[in-house]
Amino acid sequence: MTSWNIVIAASVICVALKAAGYLVPARAFEHPVVARIANLLTVALLSALIAVQTLGAGQGVQLDARVPAVLVAAGLYALKVPFVVVVIAAAAVAALIRLLT
Amino acid sequence: MADAAPGDPADEQSGRPVRPGRTAADTAALRAGLAVGLATTAYGVSFGALATLSGLDIWQTCFLSLVMFTGGSQFALIGVLASGGLSAGGAAITSAALLGTRNVFYSIRMAPLIGPGFWRRVAAAQLTIDESVAVATAQPTASAQRWGFWVTGVVIYLGWNLTTLLGALIGDLIGDVSAYGLDAAAAAAFLGLLWPRLKQRQTQAVAVGAAFVAALLTPVLTPGLPVLVAALVAIVVGGLNLFAKRAES
């Protein structure tokens, strides 16, 4: 697969999903278990991505400057600091640790 | 988006007499839409930069924001590509698609609000994202809900694409990812998308379980797959309704 294949295929699927609710009768999705799983899927995927992004190094796990950076980010989100500020702060923490070690 | 016609004065749904101009509720919705829209727009820069650093070129990065236009899926796609490269393409597409499934539920909720008209629905479908739906559903009247949806959606669409381009140009200039801590920024960005969803015990349990599964499987499976397997945690917990305090609807 080329990167264009990946980008276009994923985009087409995501657009189709958005259009689905305007085309498909709502009945098909109204079951509470389906709705609950859809909501939890978002949570599970985001959380798994955080874990892989924080700990993954190719096909392996590595503890490095990303871990304290993400912990700082979590603390700042808890303090209701705006998204952009938190992202920049996390990058700065990781960059600083790497500079000093 | 010119045909979007925010705040169509024919307010047939709320049953009030049709009147020109905006009500106080409409104005409040417009303000909320602008505020949320501008705040969200700003992190398009981090998407643009991280996308180019994950191996996509500027055009592919901009294509994602123009066409896919759903932040969670966009970040998921580049996150998997960044760790697994092109060989993880299938997993990258699947992750983006799974994260996009929540938009089906958003569009079902928005469909009666948007009303008929092919182009209006096409535009609405493209603008159906977390933020536009959140602002719309927070408004008290049908008219204000429409204002909230369209203003938030249009502001974010324009802003997100501009800041994506800006971020992609910056990312293209930066060579080394890790020296600037941008790998940690990606994780922090995902955490920001996750944070507002962690209010119930059930979502907290799923978040912890999924992170654990993904981390444990990372040394065992090819990149991209651990994230997909972790999605099973949501299916098990959601299907059996584990960790629910009371019967939630």
Q: Main attributes?
A:
heterodimer, A: 4 helices, B: 249 residues, mainly alpha, 2 domains, 12 helices, 70% helix, 0% strand
Verbal overview:
The complex is a heterodimer of chains A (101) and B (249). By secondary structure, chain A is mostly helical. Chain A has a domain at 64-101. Chain A is built from 4 helices and no strands. In chain A, helix 3 packs antiparallel against helix 4 (83-100). The longest helix of chain A has 24 residues, at 32-55. The radius of gyration of chain A is 19 Å and the shape is elongated. The termini of chain A are far apart. The mean pLDDT of chain A is 89. Chain B folds into 2 domains: 23-196, no CATH class; 198-249, no CATH class. Helices cover 70% and strands 0% of the residues of chain B. By secondary structure, chain B is mainly alpha-helical. At the A-B interface, helix 1, helix 2, helix 3 and helix 4 of A face helix 1, helix 3, helix 4, helix 5 and helix 6 of B.
Largest sheet of chain B: none
Give the beta-strand count of chain B. 0
Helix and strand element order of chain A: HHHH
Radius of gyration of chain A: 19 Å
Distance between the termini of chain A: 39 Å
Largest sheet of chain A: none
Termini Cα gap of chain B: 36 Å
Q: Determine the structural class of chain A based on helices, strands and strand pairing.
A: mainly alpha
What secondary-structure arrangement, pairings included, does this model have?
The complex is a heterodimer of chains A (101) and B (249).
Chain A: H1 3-23, H2 32-55, H3 66-78, H4 83-100
Chain B: H1 24-42, H2 44-53, H3 58-68, H4 71-84, H5 89-100, H6 102-114, H7 118-126, H8 130-137, H9 142-173, H10 182-194, H11 201-217, H12 225-240
Helix pairs in contact in B: 1-8, 1-9, 2-4, 2-9, 3-9, 4-5, 6-7, 8-9, 11-12
